Every structure is written in structure tokens, then in C-alpha cells.
């Protein structure tokens, strides 16, 4: 699932209108609509606000799987 699809599903699951969520995040409606239509990507600070608002990790928000195939060991 893409970020924009996930964002739309989260918003709808919480019964929010686009304007309501944009207001909660402190961004314009137009900016929010760009994100939901996958026309622009939000800055990291906005991504963090979205994840915090919904109580999820940035990985979950981005639609990343926890166990990615071919995952490399962390560099130490």
C-alpha cells in the first residue's frame, strides 16, 4: 500500500474530512490534498505529525513491511 492510499484509509477510518485532518496537522487543505492524491510528498516534520496523530510508526504510515526480503544487517 502506498503512503497516499494509507493516508486516505486512515483519515476515513477515523471519520475525518480532509479539511479537519489538515487543520489538526497545521497544514493547508491544498497541501493535504496533494499528499492524498500522491502529487507531492510531505516534509519529514509533517510525516511525523501524521504518524503521531494516528499513533503509528513512520514505517506503518509509509506502508512498509516489517520484514523486508533481503534485509541487510545494520552497519556498526
Please specify the SSE layout and strand pairing.
Elements: H1 3-13, H2 18-25, H3 29-36, H4 44-54, H5 58-62
Average per-residue pLDDT, rounded, comes to 90
The count of helical stretches stands at: 5
The total beta strand count reads 0
How large a portion of the residues is in β-strands, by DSSP E?
under 5%
* C-alpha-based Rg, rounded: 14 Å
- Helix/strand/pairing class, anyone? mainly alpha
Approximate shape? globular
Distance between the termini: 31 Å
Q: Helical amount among residues, as a percent range?
A: 55-70%
Classify the oligomer.
single chain
| Unreliable residue runs | none
Summarize the helix and strand pattern as letters.
Answer: HHHHH
What about the largest sheet? none
Question: How would you characterize this protein structure?
Answer:
- The protein has 76 residues and is mainly α.
- The chain is built from 5 helices and no strands.
- Helix 2 packs across helix 3.
- The termini are far apart.
- The model has no long low-confidence stretch (mean pLDDT 90).
Outline of the structure:
The protein has 76 residues and is mostly helical. The protein has helices at 3-13, 18-25, 29-36, 44-54, 58-62. Helix content is 57%, strand content 0%.
Distinctive features:
76 residues, 5 helices, 57% helix
Amino acid at each position: 500500500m502506498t503512503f497516499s492510499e494509507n493516508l486516505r484509509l486512515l483519515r476515513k477510518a477515523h471519520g475525518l474530512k480532509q479539511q479537519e485532518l489538515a487543520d489538526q496537522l497545521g497544514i493547508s487543505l491544498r497541501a493535504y490534498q496533494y499528499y492524498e492524491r500522491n502529487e507531492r510528498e510531505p516534509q519529514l516534520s509533517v510525516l511525523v505529525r501524521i504518524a503521531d496523530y494516528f499513533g503509528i510508526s513512520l514505517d506503518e504510515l509509509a506502508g512498509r513491511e516489517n520484514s523486508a526480503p533481503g534485509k541487510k544487517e545494520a552497519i556498526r
